[in-house]
Amino acid sequence: MTAAAELLIVEDEPKIAAAMRDWLAAAGYAIRLSDSGDGVVEAVRAQPPDLLLLDVMLPGEDGLSICRRVREFSDLPIILVTARVEEIDRLLGLDLGADDYVCKPFSLRELGARVRALLRRTRPAARPPADGDDGIVLDTDRFEVRIGGRALALTPVEFRLLRRLMEKPGKVYSRGQLLDASYEDHRVVSDRTVDSHIRNLRRKFGEIGRDPIASVYGVGFRFEIGRDE
Predict the structure, then answer these.
(1) Which residues, including other chains, have CB under 8 Å from residue 88's CB and lie 6 or more apart?
(2) Is residue 17 located within the same domain as residue 82?
(3) 80 φ, ψ (degrees, to nearest 5)
(4) DSSP state string for 134-180
């Protein structure tokens, strides 16, 4: 099982930052947020993310300076986000080591696609399950789940729900958290919709003698490694 990629978003406009956070978290990424350039380089050095989404115009240290300084010690993927569309800024940003540019206003779908593409190129491929792993492999490109080489047919919503549960085995996720991860269009549905998806997942796992999803009464659900029927 591959851990969720962690993204550090540095953006000082609250509405944009919240939209980016919500969309990318729903896509299965772990998110850290900062609304100032000050301290970002030190945070990256102390706890490197898998990808840095960096606004150019920031209070404190600006994004181009941060990009240049990070490149002195790290090759982590960097996407610059800016409303400054002049060609000189684009060239300067890329010369400083940025991997990609997104210009405001941008669509969240496009941003998600660029993040996925960049991580696919730069993040190490998932290793096969080793002895002692639970043997469940999520293929996010194909929306497939394989267990011992056998494919498990899931709907996209079921896949996203299972992916969120498997990010942190043992962690209890509320129905609201699972809904946020399951529906990328953020449609309004009842919390009890999760129960229906969980029942379907358990039925499908049950067909191969597995039962990795546990209910926590009054709270939500968790994924348990090694749990069988």
Answers:
(1) none
(2) yes
(3) -85, 140
(4) --EEEETTTTEEEETTEEE---HHHHHHHHHHHHSTT--EEHHHHHH
Are both 116 and 146 inside the same structural domain? Answer: no
- What's the whole-number mean pLDDT along residues 79-103? 71
Q: What is the CATH number of the domain that holds 194?
A: 1.10.10.10
Phi, psi of 204 (to 5 degrees): -70, -40
pLDDT tens-digit series, residues 61-82: 999 899 989 988 888 899 988 8
Residues 117, 45 share a domain: yes
The pLDDT tens digits for 156-194 are 888 888 888 888 888 888 888 887 777 654 444 556 778
Work out the percent of the chain whose per-residue pLDDT is above 70: 79
- pLDDT tens by residue, 34-64: 999 999 999 999 888 999 999 988 999 999 8
Q: How many CB atoms lie within 10 A of CB 45?
A: 12
229 in a structural domain = no
Show the domain range for 142.
136-223
Q: What tokens does 165 get?
A: 């549960």
Question: Radius of gyration (Cα) for the chain, nearest Å?
Answer: 19
DSSP classification of residue 228: B
Tokens 């209910």 appear where? 215
Closest C-alpha among 21, 18, 12 to residue 40: 12
Task: Provide the pLDDT for residue 194.
Answer: 83
CB 20 within 8 A of CB 108: yes
Structural domains in the chain (count)? 2
Phi-psi domain of 218 (left: phi exceeds 0; alpha: psi -120 through 50; beta: other): left
Please check whether residues 140 and 117 belong to one and the same domain.
no
